[in-house]
# Entry
Amino acid sequence: MEAEKVIELAGVEKTFRDFWLRPTVKAVDGLDLSVARGEVFGLLGPNGSGKSTTIKMILGLLGPSAGSIRLFGLSPRSIEARKRIGYLPELSYLHPFLTASETLHYYAGLCGLDRTTARSRATQLLEMVGLEEVAGRAVGGFSKGMARRVALASSLIGKPELLVLDEPTSGLDPVSTNEVKTLVKTLARGGMTILMTSHLLADAEDVCGRVMIVNHGKAVAEGRIGEIGSSLNEFFLAKVGEGRDFKVAPFLQ
# Structure
């Protein structure tokens, strides 16, 4: 029996336009994507490849210029679909004067949870991300890794069926990166469907079951890590080989 499709994109395009509605950038160009329940799917590519734009369309924050997007068979802008999603943006903006516990209670309120449920889940999540001992400290004094774990816990407070992670390890040191990846793998083993973007090949190899490489808004390759490992390496090595020749001599003279 075929697994339920949590995310389905068919021929999706996104063209950004200027004030006079003239096309300026085609960020996504004819993308087809399917993620089944329980999968950990990676959307990979260099910065500016269209990953974040695709994520925003999946979340219903942007509408596609063409094609269709369905989440759980529903429109991504429907309340029913949004109730089933958790989202960790690339940049997490936490209120610096709220404690870790207060931050989770705040997001629990946005999810419509009652106080008893909010208190229970906040306690469980802070323990899960290893911050139970600093639950009463203001997040403004946290390291970037600790703040990232608070943000990840906040994205889970509603017990989402689908967790969307946009560059979850962006800007983190190796220790914090490993902690975040370990947590993602633990959630995946619990049956959660996860879609994550990254420009780091190591993240995908450690966490994802299937991946898609995108470049200039188009799919370059798709499949399981073991099946397209050579394609992944060739693609990223080619991007390294395209490195810019910075003309620094005039500046240093």
Summary: The longest strand covers residues 23-36. The chain has a mean pLDDT of 87. Residues 28 and 54 are 7 Å apart (CA to CA).
